[in-house]
Write a structure and sequence with these properties.
It contains 18 helices and 31 strands. Helices cover 27% and strands 20% of the residues.
Length: 680
């Protein structure tokens, strides 16, 4: 017998075995690590809420509808692959770069491994979210004629939105309503249904929301000219209506329906001169605007030259009573982070609602308690952009058999004289009816100057809006911005400034003023009379919005702003004056822009920069950030009650999230980094 134990041969054999084992374990560990890294990269392409659904599913064969963000357009081979292994390719949206696919949950990860698929998101649910409006916003004054320099002469008169197409992605617009014209004189020039394939007739609104929204923007009030207590005309009463039905008879729909409608609007924008898309709808924010399919569709529309106006949402308060006002009415806890998708996208014009308190005056208006506040979940952007009347608005009532009139029979307005048409108007509330006031205003602006780009329109609207004088309880400027944006829309001022901008502004070279050579902003009369009150929109403010800079004297088209330290404000970022940054640091006069201009208008705040503890004053909102899951759960309760009685509606029961949640507004720049960027 050969004795191996303790011998050199034995030790060599053991060493060889151990060495081989180490190699095998190392190789196995490397394979495991590589596989884990690969799995992690795949998971990053799947939206968080969809990934949670996959991990928690008891039945992996459950089918789900998803939206694929594509690297390019699908080929014939791609379509064959997407229609195999239990997958069904339902629709392609080439204008916005998405496809809708139905598949088992077990197939999602396999699909995410493909290099030509950039992102997979669930096909989430969205829901829908006037005399006072017309007068309070200054639309009446704008339509009477725009006097640019205050010399008493009308420089741009007869603004009524004529020739401008507004696409309403909603529950449809009733073609039978006289306020949109009848028969050959109908201003509903196109009507498409994206909710079903059962042959339902187009031109109907079987819920009642879309007709009311369209009435605020462009109803002509014909049915109320005699026999009603008021004249219920919209902001742009001659604008054309493009009805894109994406919400069903219950006021809900899929994101894919909305994307399909936006895709259609982009493709047909030149046929119907679609310059505005109104989205009085929204859903919870479950992912960054950078990856969210609906936000990306909105950005494609804006990039195609269409102004997109979105309601902020109706999640500004909870049911927790924190006190009582002088009249004994309860004061509810304010909720932050309630901006719904796609209102969280920086390229959208996001509109909150005001309460006009039963008067035409602007001086007593306040932000409606239910109007959603910023900052936006996940990205932490400042929203809304501005506010408009949205409480107890009387607007057009669908003439079709519909759900909403049956839910709110007491809100239907009846004539005060015999012979006047009945059941043609209804009182509704919410940011859904604030957004179309802005859409109508945009139609007037584009009629005055068709060469305005979406970024020019947004900059002018924000520049001419005024903070609400009755709102005095803000802790600081940031608190004001996430509540009312830059303030209440001023239609006459926006129309006046739009008329002042040069024609062919869209073709102006970078760095050029958008005013005529012999004009500055000081030449424009910036005091308007609205509802008997003088409104001054000249506060020497500075504003930068997506390549448009407005200072005290000029409007410039520039590429961007670069601060000392290399920090650049690109598209989607806004500057507004009057704010202090990072523990008392202020950006003062003398900072230079990338294109050679100098900021000499005082302090500026980079609105849109994801928030940092040092300059957000998180104590204002940090413990009251809404949980997006509770938005979906409380929607039906909130919506019905809100439309019925506005401010007096019963608030929903909402949950909050803490800073550990993936949905919490997350800072991108630390206080130290921000200070370095802005250091002289």
């Amino acid at each position: 017998m050969v004795k191996l134990i303790g011998s050199p041969r034995f030790r060599a054999l053991v060493s060889a075995i151990l060495f081989g084992l180490a190699l095998w374990l190392g190789a196995s560990l490397t394979v495991d690590l590589t596989q884990a890294q690969a799995d992690d990269e795949v998971d990053k392409k799947i939206a968080v809420d969809l990934l949670d659904k996959i991990k928690g599913a008891q039945n992996r064969s459950e089918r789900i509808s998803v939206l694929l963000q594509l690297r390019g357009q699908l080929t014939t081979v791609d379509r064959l692959l997407l229609n195999s292994l239990g997958r069904i390719l339902r629709r392609e949206f080439n204008s916005v770069g998405y496809a809708e696919v139905s598949l088992p949950l077990s197939q999602v990860r396999a699909l995410a491994e493909r290099q030509d698929i950039l992102r997979i998101s669930p096909d989430r649910i969205v829901w829908e979210s006037n005399e006072v409006t017309r007068i309070t916003t200054g639309a009446d004054a704008a339509r009477a004629g725009v006097d640019i320099n205050g010399d008493g002469k009308v420089d741009s008169g007869g603004l009524d939105g004529r020739g401008i197409g507004i696409a309403f992605v909603d529950s449809g617009v009733s073609m039978g309503h006289i306020d949109f014209g009848i028969g050959s004189k109908s201003r509903v020039v196109a009507s498409v249904d994206f909710t079903s394939q059962d042959g339902r007739a187009v031109g109907q609104d079987d819920y009642g929301h879309g007709t009311g929204v369209a009435g605020v923007a462009c109803g002509d009030g014909r049915a109320s000219r005699s026999g009603y207590a008021g004249f219920y005309q919209g902001i742009a009463p001659a604008a054309n209506v493009i009805s894109l039905k994406a919400l069903d008879s219950n006021g809900v729909g899929r994101v894919s329906n909305v994307i399909a409608a936006i895709d259609w609007a982009i493709k047909n924008r030149f046929i119907y001169n679609i310059r505005v898309i109104n989205l009085s709808l929204g859903g919870p924010v479950f992912e960054s605007y950078r990856t969210d399919p609906l936000c990306r569709a909105v950005e494609r529309a804006v990039d195609a030259g269409i102004v997109v106006v979105v309601s902020a949402g109706n999640f500004g308060r909870t049911n927790i009573i924190i006190g009582y006002d002088r009249e004994g009415k309860p004061i509810y806890q304010t909720v932050y982070g309630g901006i719904t998708c796609p209102g969280n996208d920086p390229k959208a014009i996001t509109v909150g609602a005001t309460n006009s308190r039963g008067t035409y005056r602007r001086s007593d208006d306040t932000v409606a308690s239910y109007s959603s506040r910023g900052p936006t979940l996940i990205d932490g952007l400042i929203k809304p952009d501005l506010v408009a009347p949205g409480n107890r608005i009387i607007t057009t009532l669908t003439q079709d058999e519909a759900v909403l009139p049956r839910q709110l029979p007491g809100n239907i307005q009846q004539p005060i004289k015999q012979g006047a048409p009945k059941n043609v108007y209804i009182e509704l509330s919410g940011t859904s009816f604030a957004a179309p006031a802005v859409s109508g205003a945009v139609a007037l602006m584009l009629q005055a100057n068709p060469s305005l780009t979406p970024s020019m329109v947004k900059a002018i609207l924000k520049y001419t809006a005024q903070p609400l004088p009755a709102e005095t309880n803000f802790v600081n400027e940031y608190h004001s911005l996430i509540t009312q944006g830059t303030g209440l829309i001023d239609v006459v001022a926006a129309a006046k400034l739009s008329s002042s901008v040069v024609q062919r502004a869209d073709r102006a070279p970078q760095g050029q003023s958008l005013l005529p050579e012999d004009m500055t902003l000081s030449d424009i009369d910036r005091v308007d009379v609205i509802a008997g009150e003088k409104v001054n929109w000249d506060r020497g403010r500075l504003l930068y919005q997506d390549g448009i800079l407005i200072n005290k004297n000029q409007i410039y088209k520039i590429k961007g702003i670069t601060f000392p330290g290399g920090f650049t404000l690109a598209d989607g970022f806004t500057l507004a004056d009057g704010f202090t940054l990072a523990d008392g640091f202020t950006l003062a006069d003398g900072f230079t822009l990338a294109d050679g201009f100098t900021l000499a208008d005082g302090f500026v705040y980079p609105e849109g920069i994801p928030i940092s503890d040092a300059f957000t004053f998180r104590n204002v909102w940090g413990s009251s950030v809404i949980d997006p899951h509770s938005i979906a759960q409380s929607t039906s309760l909130l919506i019905t009650g809100l439309r019925s009685v506005g401010e007096s509606s019963s608030p929903p029961l909402l949950a909050f999230i803490n800073s550990n949640s993936p949905y919490y507004p997350a800072p991108l720049l630390s206080a130290y980094e921000m200070s370095k960027c802005l250091k002289k």
